[in-house]
Design brief:
By secondary structure, this protein is of the alpha+beta class. The chain has helices at residues 125-130, 165-170, 193-199, 234-246, 289-300, 313-331, 353-363, 381-386, 425-439, 443-451, 457-468; strands at 2-5, 8-16, 26-40, 53-61, 64-70, 86-90, 97-104, 116-124, 136-139, 147-163, 178-187, 202-210, 257-260, 262-264, 277-279, 304-306, 338-346, 368-374, 406-410. The strands form five sheets. A six-stranded mixed β-sheet has the order 15-13-12-17-18-19, with helices on both faces. Strands 6-3-10-9 form a four-stranded antiparallel β-sheet. Strands 5-4-7-8 form a four-stranded antiparallel β-sheet. A hairpin with a 2-residue loop joins strand 1 and strand 2. Helix 3 runs parallel beside helix 11. The longest helix is centred in the middle third of the chain and has 19 residues, at 313-331. The N and C termini lie far apart (48 Å). 43% of the residues are buried.
Length: 489
């Protein structure tokens, strides 16, 4: 048995649990990255000399601030480049928030409260990784011109495990499907998703919301899945979980939001059933990222009548067009290279299955993945057919998908309970983290499989450079068609 991880082919003997299909086995690897820190224009807190800065890094884990480490002290410098590096694991499917705090060290005491504070900045590890070798620069909270630059370098991979994606999404206590005994290895060049992100690949996300009539009583105790009596419901919780992770990888952070299966009182044909209508913020047009997604959804709820049926094909086709247009614009330097993620949040069975399969097969040849999140207690058995873990998806004409681009996860398989009225912020945050990990688990391999025969990281870097040097500014999605997550205290 052979598995390729980063730049190494691994030949091994493995003990696998019964029922695991080796042909559909995936690997789970946490990349290890090294962070380099430098600062500019620090505020001078010393009278007879310059500040003696030190950087301290904190990481957020399930909403709790955790001390990670500190650098050496650089004597008499307002423009320090620290020799010490911070080493940590990078997980694409999780948003890893980091805080960098700078102190002027005036004594040998380790207590930070006894040192002069020179400012701090908060960055997501995804922002740092996607910034490439130039690093991510951010303003510090003290001093009008003070900045910090953080760059990431991959230094290896750890924790090779055999993971069955189907078991991972359906078994709460599933860890892995086997143990490996390494016999020998040979070098072989393989590019990872991290390579493409550092080269300048953008990740664009669009969200499609189900407004069919079955939502009206599909929640716990027969309440509506679109219930607005709390600030969070199943739909907004799913948007926040996925959008928060993807946000750092999109330069403009404008995420299109669509509805389907409802009768909107706005748009080109108000009052008519539509299977693809775009939602916009009503009250704050300046919102970006996850906050904009939530506003698109919440601001329009009262103006959409729940109806039906549940059709996916038109939503998929519209987003396929966006991916195709991006490919054309990349070739002429009018857009950055972008991989598209369509998140469909739905409460029921698909009514246009054959059309949906046809459009997914077509989309499998494009830089695009589809995530389907099931909410409520409906029968989602048809989704397993689209999430083709057993074999390639095939349409009614006999055409087969070039690769698996669909990942389905039922929210009930992640959330221990779905009553948001009694769910505290810590429980909600923990559930959202686990949901994002499950729905994004297959995305790195899907990206790698698409670009394997399409483009190298060097080609992606050249395309990205051509766009950014042109001075143009446009969304990865050509047509612009409160997260509830705790911050550092």
């Amino acid at each position: 048995l052979i598995i390729c991880v980063n730049t190494v082919w691994l030949f091994f003997i493995a003990r696998i649990d019964s029922g695991t299909n080796l042909t559909r086995m995936a690997y789970s690897v946490a990349s290890t990255v090294e962070l380099s820190i430098s600062c500019s224009n620090l505020k001078n807190k010393d009278v007879l000399s310059k500040s003696d800065p030190m950087c301290v890094m904190f990481a957020q884990e399930l909403g709790t601030k955790i001390f990670h480490g500190r650098t050496e002290v650089v004597k008499d410098s307002l423009f320090p480049s620290f020799m010490s590096k911070f080493v940590l694991k990078y997980y694409f499917e999780t948003r890893q928030n980091l805080r960098f705090s700078i102190y002027d060290v005036d004594n040998k005491h380790s207590n930070l409260d006894e040192q002069d504070f020179l400012g701090s900045a908060e960055l997501a590890l995804g922002e740092i990784v996607s910034a490439g070798e130039m690093g991510k620069t951010a303003a510090l909270s003290v001093g009008s011109k003070a900045t910090i630059n953080v760059s990431a370098t991959e230094i290896g991979a750890e924790d090779l495990k055999l993971i069955n994606p189907k078991h991972l999404s359906k078994k709460k206590n599933y860890k892995n499907s086997g143990q490996l005994v390494l016999r020998r290895f040979e070098p072989f060049q393989v590019f990872t998703m991290l390579d493409y992100l550092q080269a300048g690949l953008q990740i664009g996300i669009a969200v499609a919301v189900d407004f069919t009539a079955s939502n009206s009583n599909g929640g716990p105790g027969g309440i509506s899945l679109h219930d607005t009596r709390t600030s969070v419901n199943s739909y907004s919780a799913a948007m926040s979980a996925v959008g928060t992770v993807i946000e750092p990888y999109d330069s403009d952070k404008i995420f299109p939001c669509f509805g389907f299966g409802g009768r909107p009182n706005f748009g080109d044909a108000p009052g008519r059933v539509s299977h693809c209508f775009e939602l916009h913020p009503r009250y704050n047009q300046s919102l970006i990222g996850v906050n904009r997604l939530i506003a698109c959804y919440q601001d329009n709820l009262r103006d959409i009548q729940l109806y039906g049926p549940t059709n996916f094909s038109q939503i998929i086709r519209e987003n396929t067009k966006a991916a195709e247009e991006n490919l054309r614009n990349v070739q002429i330097g009018k857009a950055p290279p972008c991989y598209f993620i369509l998140v469909i949040i739905t409460d029921g069975q698909i009514s246009d299955m054959e059309d949906t399969k046809r459009d997914i097969v077509y989309a499998s040849a494009l830089p695009m993945s589809i995530i389907i999140i099931g909410v409520g207690n409906a029968d989602f058995s048809s989704m397993d057919e689209l999430d083709s873990d057993i074999g390639p998806l095939q349409d009614c004409y006999g055409n087969r998908a070039q690769r698996d681009i669909v990942q389905f996860v039922s929210m009930n398989s992640v959330f221990k309970r779905t009553s948001f009225h009694s769910m505290g912020p810590e429980e909600l945050y923990s559930n959202q983290v686990h949901l994002s990990q499950k729905v994004l688990a297959e995305l790195p391999s899907q990206v790698e499989k698409y670009y394997k025969h399409k483009a190298s990281p060097q080609q992606i870097a050249a395309q990205a450079k051509a766009y950014w040097s042109s001075g143009l500014s446009s969304a990865p999605y050509p047509s612009p068609a409160s997260t509830g997550l705790p911050n550092f205290a």
